[in-house]
Design goal:
Elements (H helix, E strand, L loop, with lengths): L32 H8 L6 E6 L2 E6 L2 H7 L5 E4 L2 H10 L11 H10 L5 H24 L4 E2 H18 L13 H19 L5 H5 L4 H24 L14 H6 L12 H31 L2 H15 L16 H13 L5 E6 L3 E3 L2 E3 L5 E4 H4 L3 H4 L13 H6 L18 H18 E5 L7 E3 L3 E3 L3 E6 L5
Parallel strand pairs: 2-8
Antiparallel strand pairs: 1-2, 3-5, 4-12, 5-8, 6-7, 9-12, 10-11
Helix pairs in contact: 3-7, 5-6, 5-17, 6-11, 7-9, 11-13, 11-17, 12-13, 12-17
Length: 475
């Protein structure tokens, strides 16, 4: 990504800018840049710049500006600093590729069919089977459960089985899975590298990843190579996670050629894609579920309404599981999830850059310039969400309210052709799991716990535990 000059224009910036360090706060925690920014954007213009030493970061803070830059005809995805840092490992995988790179188009076209309705139907039973393991773990627990850890185990196991025909056995042992440990190291390193890149000589310092990050990446590649070799030895497009939905993700990457060009993904790109899907395919979903459970645990009225819906659809049997057709009927549960993602979008920013010289919010922007749509601010834009946008209210997603809102005022999965390809997968899994947990358990958070959020490449509640007990359901 080129240095963000914006043709020398000096955009509005927060008060208190200092010579040399720019807009960096003296007391700011370098480990929480998203939350630091969330505190500082109140009352700032809808397009604002922050300077860190010589680097300029321009943020879109309103739904109005977001709508201007979301247009794929005139704008394209720009890789934010943290994504560029991750690209040191994942190369031209779907999430970290530039749109013009050939591998992005080939992979996108090969993998879109893996997220159609027939494919989703094929994943459903596996999602339920992995949720069974989570429910059993919580039912057997005699101490408060570690929400983020358990949900991360579940979502990794789900993506492993459904997409790659591989079980990580995440509920078979207590310690953290080696892949997850390596992933956390890699994401943390990428976040730190993005921050260091703003320092003088920072890009030179972070060009080569740390020894710890390289070791973590080697662990991930080794695990991925084993998954690929097992599939090649089996010779089939189907993994063990589905029977009715056609080839899984790994099968689509390894065996067929692009329908029009005849191009195939090379081995290195397949490894990059698997790493990306294993990370993005579970980290964001487990975070979204964890935030939703935090809000549910702290709002008796919302939790009661959600449980009433699950009881109505699933009945009095605590062992009952949702059918594929039932999942879209959990409308209130879905609204809870949507509202949690509004307030805490687990992927908090997207980069955009114009294809030609244009004007954004009255400022000139060239193809060499880029901005970050700061999603927590867009999701709290008072012009869209009212005078109290920080309040948790699932009714924000009643159909009539959704229809009344302007486009691009809610974008937890990004925008356009570079939006999250697995959105339907994530939503289906999250609603299914949330409904099952609400139906089976009553839960309470530690009243002394205040929400703390850890920041890697995604956002996740930190230290959040729930006391769970099985509900007494009456026929």
């Amino acid at each position: 990504m080129s240095r963000n000059t914006w043709s020398g224009q000096r955009l509005p910036h927060p008060p208190g800018r200092r010579r040399f360090v720019g807009d960096i706060e003296r007391e700011a925690d370098p480990n929480t840049p998203v939350q630091n920014l969330m505190r500082r954007v109140h009352g700032l213009p809808e397009l604002v710049e922050f300077k860190a030493f010589r680097e300029k970061f321009v943020f879109a803070l309103s739904a109005r500006v977001c709508a201007q830059v979301a247009d794929d005809v005139h704008f394209d995805k720009a890789l934010a600093p943290a994504v560029l840092a991750l690209r040191r490992f994942s190369g031209d995988a779907l999430f970290t590729a530039f749109t013009h790179e050939p591998a992005w188009g080939v992979a996108h076209d090969l993998l879109v069919p893996a997220f159609t309705k027939p494919a989703m139907r094929g994943y459903h039973d596996t999602m339920n089977a992995v949720a069974d393991d989570l429910v059993a773990r919580w039912a057997a627990s005699t101490t408060p459960v570690d929400v983020a850890d358990d949900l991360t185990r579940m979502t990794l196991e789900t993506i492993g089985r459904t997409a790659f025909g591989h079980s990580f056995g995440t509920f078979a042992h207590q310690e953290r899975d080696p892949y997850v440990a390596a992933m956390v190291t890699l994401l943390s390193d990428s976040g730190q590298a993005a921050g260091l890149s703003t320092l003088p000589l920072g890009q030179l310092i972070t060009r080569r990843p740390s020894r710890r990050a390289r070791a973590a990446y080697a662990t991930q590649v080794e695990i991925t190579e084993d998954i690929i070799e097992a599939r090649l030895a089996g010779g089939g497009q189907h993994g063990g996670g589905q029977q009715r939905g056609g080839a899984d993700l790994l099968g689509r990457m390894l065996f067929p050629a692009h329908a029009e060009s005849g191009a195939r993904l090379d081995r290195r790109n397949v490894i990059n894609q698997v790493l990306t899907f294993l990370t993005a395919g579970h980290e964001t979903t487990s975070g979204a579920l964890s935030f939703a459970l935090w809000y549910l645990a702290n709002d008796d009225r919302v939790r009661a309404a959600a449980q009433a819906e699950t009881d109505d659809l699933l009945g009095p049997d605590p062992q009952s599981t949702p059918t594929f057709e039932m999942v879209p009927k959990f409308r209130y549960v879905r609204r809870v999830l949507d509202e949690a993602l509004r307030l805490w979008p687990t992927a908090p920013a997207i980069g955009r850059s114009p294809r030609a010289v244009t004007t954004v919010a009255g400022w000139t922007m060239t193809p060499q310039d880029w901005l970050l749509v700061f999603i927590p601010a867009v999701h709290r834009d008072p012009a869209v969400w009212g005078p109290d946008p920080d309040r948790f209210d699932p009714d924000n997603f009643l159909p009539e309210r959704v229809r009344a809102r302007p486009a691009y005022s809610y974008l937890p999965f990004g925008v356009g052709t570079r939006a999250c390809i697995g959105r339907q997968f994530a939503l289906h899994e999250a609603v299914l799991v949330l409904a099952r947990l609400l139906h089976r358990f009553d839960f309470a958070a530690d009243p002394a716990y205040d929400l703390r959020v850890t920041e890697r490449l995604t956002l996740m509640p930190k230290g959040f535990r729930l006391t769970v007990r099985e509900r007494s359901l009456v026929a």
